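Entry 14. Ran structure prediction on the chain below.
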Amino acid sequence: MAKSSTGMEENVAALLSYVLGWVTGLIFFLIEKESKFVKFHAMQSIITFGALTILYIILAWIPILGWVLGAIIWILEVVLWIVLMIKAYQGVKFKLPFAGDLAEKWSA
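Output, structure tokens:
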């Protein structure tokens, strides 16, 4: 992998864009100037984990059912988070349905 404008290898910068969800995605999206690979993963992190954060806020207001659904979604989110970090580190442009297409469009 080549170096990104952050001075890191592209795969490391892409992995780091997922570490704290949409927060690190936003940071890497704003500081990366050249690498389309890093910008894609950063934008996918913003879209995916930003949407999940909004979903959690909504579910928190629904007693019992919302809390149960929130717990199930959290487990799935942790698995997704790990998969996305592994794929980014491997140098794979792993596109999620919907979020991947938006990320590709908005990071170009």
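Residues 3 and 9 are 4 Å apart (CA to CA). Will compare against last week's run tomorrow.
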